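Exercise 7.
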Amino acid sequence: MKKLAVLGMGVCIALAFSSCKSSESAYKKAYEKAKQQELAEPQQTEPVVQEVAAPVEVKVVESAPVGVRQEKVTVVSGGVLKKFSVVCGAYSVKANAEGVKGTLVNENYAAMVVYNAERNLYRVVIGTFDDRASAESLRDSFKAQHPSNADYQKAWLLYSAE
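Solution. The predicted structure, written as tokens, is:
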């Protein structure tokens, strides 16, 4: 009786291993067939043709000047946005931006909050000008008046082409 049980278990194990091998070989056969088809296809190489291009007229599109960021923003609270603005902070929560704006208004800055929908950020603007030189002057004096505030030291210029 023991011999029959051992023999039966041996047959079951042999069948189990042989069934796994057949599924593995099916995958291997499909892979080999695909590889042979890939190698059988002739490799097509196209001749390289160099063309001499005629002169092209270059059209200059107005973009942000070097050292200035250009973003699409809308005024949330404050005045009207001009071509160049000085941004001193960016916040994901409107209340935080409004709090900083209030502090800066108390320091006699014409602060406003603008919203950048693309980045989902509220920017705090401390001044806005038609010319870049005035904006740079305000940015530099703002940084000089707040040397210990690391966030204010990152103030930058925003260019609005609209």
